[in-house]
Specification:
- The chain is of the alpha+beta class.
- Among the domains are: 69-169, Oxygen-evolving enhancer protein 3 (PsbQ), four-helix up-down bundle (Four Helix Bundle (Hemerythrin (Met), subunit A)), CATH 1.20.120.290; 180-375, Cyclophilin (Beta Barrel).
- Helices cover 30% and strands 14% of the residues.
- The strands form four sheets. The chain has an eight-stranded antiparallel beta sheet with strand order 4-5-11-10-12-3-2-13, with helices on both faces.
- Strand 2 and strand 3 form a beta hairpin.
- Helix 4 (72-89) runs antiparallel to helix 5 (93-109), helix 4 packs antiparallel against helix 8 (149-169) and helix 5 (93-109) runs antiparallel to helix 7 (123-145).
- The longest helix has 23 residues, at 123-145.
- The two termini are 25 Å apart.
């Protein structure tokens, strides 16, 4: 049994919804500038942040920015290297050179500051990494002098991967404690890399437990169980979504063999500036219309949990890849952010994802890095260090059908788009979401 079919909106309705939402967001309070970005007068509880400007469409960059670290030196290196791509597209060689010089200067002059936030036991590894990065800067400078755009892109990507490694070394203890009511669910206390082999080629996904530990933990646990091996992609919408995870038989999700119960996963969205995710409610329903998710729907290959439209806590095993690049839509300014749990991004295999259609198959999925970050319910520990006991959850009834509709509620001038209503019926097609940009 599958989630119900997506109800497509006509273009007029989509345009109307998007325009009204944009107008509402502009008129609410102090405007977008104060709403979306820190003005410098306050310090957020969590330092993961996205730079001001158009949406970032690179999943790897989004993962780097999402890490809750406050080392300004490494962030400055990252910003300079990220900017090279923008300048390169416009063939602005002087700005490319300035970005490179800034990154090189920080690496050579601020090495102590880079190491300051790295645990002592990891410092030798970090020092070796910084030495490699200095060598990479030299190679990149030679490519810039030769104006070899292809080589610049490759070397820049390698350097940014090393920046990401350095940033992850700066992570100390897990930054927050998951609410005890979810202690019966797997949790990912860090990140993991999953490789999927499909009949069209391979996909590599990085899942982020720092921002969505329950959703990511559930996914990694199911991969470890071999749950996705042999499953077909059940829905494909060009430039929209590709969905998978519906098991054979009547069930819509994973039934834990240890309990015989459907494993329900709560909606989980971490907002920039918050110390921990919002659980069980959309940001709209929470009245947080202007808040920006740490993991936004702004990259091709965004990975998110599917769920019935009327149940924010009804997800289980079905997930989808987002197949759209809203380059002019900053995080938080679309109808998906805050409604669905994003838990990772595609980092390799875009050309394969573009080929996959309904009926194609995940032949196998395996965790190739970070499996040690998976905490199962039997050994999950809170910050107190005491073992948490697994609890049984009520089985969620399935079998209803969805009719999704978007309603704009703006009678008081403070409400945004209402959550789509949905039910599930037998023999229905998989349902995920509705979007004005599909």
């Amino acid at each position: 049994m599958r989630f119900s079919k997506i109800l497509k909106l006509d273009w007029y309705k989509r345009l109307t919804q998007t325009s009204l939402l944009a107008l509402l967001l502009v008129t609410l309070s102090f405007g977008l500038s104060g709403a979306w970005w820190d003005s410098g007068n306050s310090q957020p509880a969590r330092e993961s942040r996205l730079p001001v400007g158009n949406a970032i469409t690179d999943g790897k960059a989004l993962l780097r920015y999402s890490l809750p670290i406050d080392n300004q030196s490494v962030r400055d290196i990252q910003a300079s290297l990220e900017d090279i791509s923008t300048q390169l597209r416009a063939k602005r060689w002087s700005p490319v050179g300035r970005d490179l010089t800034k990154a090189a200067t920080i690496l050579s002059d601020r090495a102590e500051k880079l190491l300051a936030d790295i645990p002592e036991e990891k410092q030798p590894q970090a020092e070796a990494l910084i030495a490699e990065m200095n060598q990479g800067i030299t190679s990149l400078r030679e490519a810039v002098e030769a104006k070899d755009r292809e080589k610049i892109s490759i070397l820049r990507g390698q350097l940014l991967s090393q920046v990401g490694e350095l940033e992850e070394m700066m992570m100390g203890d897990f930054p927050f404690e998951v609410p005890s009511e979810y202690s019966n669910l797997p949790q990912l206390k860090g990140r993991a890399t999953v490789e999927m082999t499909t009949n069209k080629g391979n996909l590599t996904v990085v899942v982020d437990g720092y921002s969505a530990p329950v959703t990511a933990g559930n996914f990694v646990d199911l991969v470890q169980r071999g749950f996705y091996n042999g499953l077909e992609f059940i829905r494909a919408e060009d430039f929209y979504v590709l969905q998978v995870g519906d098991p054979p038989g009547k069930e819509e999700g994973f039934v834990d063999p240890a309990t015989g119960q459907y494993r329900a996963i709560p909606l989980e969205v971490l907002v920039r500036g918050d110390s921990e995710p919002v659980y069980g409610i959309t940001l709209e329903d929470a009245g947080r219309y202007r808040d920006q998710p740490v993991l936004p729907f702004s990259a091709y290959g965004t990975v998110a949990m599917a769920r019935p439209g009327d149940d924010p806590n009804g997800g289980s095993s079905q997930f989808f890849f987002f197949l759209f690049e809203p380059e002019l839509t900053p995080a938080g300014l679309n109808l998906l952010d805050g409604r669905y749990s994003v838990f990772g991004y595609l980092v390799e295999g875009k050309e394969v994802l573009e080929k996959l259609k309904e009926g194609d198959v995940i032949q196998s999925a395996k965790v190739v890095k970070g499996v040690e970050n998976l905490v199962t319910p039997q050994v999950a520990q809170g910050s107190s260090g005491q073992k948490q006991t697994a609890t049984k959850r009520d089985e969620i009834e399935s079998a209803k059908v969805v009719e999704e509709a978007e309603n704009l509620v703006d009678s008081q001038g403070t409400q945004a788009i209402a959550e789509p209503e949905a039910v599930i019926t037998p023999d229905s097609q998989p349902a995920i979401l509705d979007t004005p940009t599909s």
